[in-house]
Amino acid sequence: MATTRTDPLTLEVVELIGAVVARYYEEYEQAAAAHSLTGAQARVLGLLSLDPLPMRRIAQKLKCEPSNVTGIVDRLEARGLVERRPDPADRRVKLAAPTEKGASTARELRASLDFAREPLAGLSDTDRAVLRDLLRRMLGMDPAGLS
Prior knowledge:
Layout (H helix, E strand, L loop, with lengths): L7 H27 L4 H12 L2 E2 H8 L3 H13 L3 E6 L2 E9 L1 H13 L1 H8 L3 H14 L9
Antiparallel strand pairs: 1-3, 2-3
Helix pairs in contact: 2-4, 2-5, 3-4
Keywords: DNA-binding, Transcription, Transcription regulation
Pfam family, one: MarR_2
Protein name: MarR family transcriptional regulator
């Protein structure tokens, strides 16, 4: 069983991570609202802009119920941002994929998220690589990010 660390340094790091996450979500919600999207809709659109996915896989990645994803995709589809299409590997499976308008909106959303980029710009390439590697270790990923 893992030991829970409660030393002052660990507690401070946990608080700082919480502050970073809160600021990220606050800015993400503002960026989404500027496009008349909810944060959840923006996250799904951003995820799909990387790779078309079946609903079940979207739900796994976002750690939510597939029924929630279906509703989000329905609303994005009604706005012309997402479409459903057959999976070329298994035509019984439907993939959600961004339309051209959806991909463009996802790019605009990403471009408007300054919160993380501005503070990171003050770090050297070496510092950013160390931070990346530490975050990967915290998430149980291998150093190359392949797991």
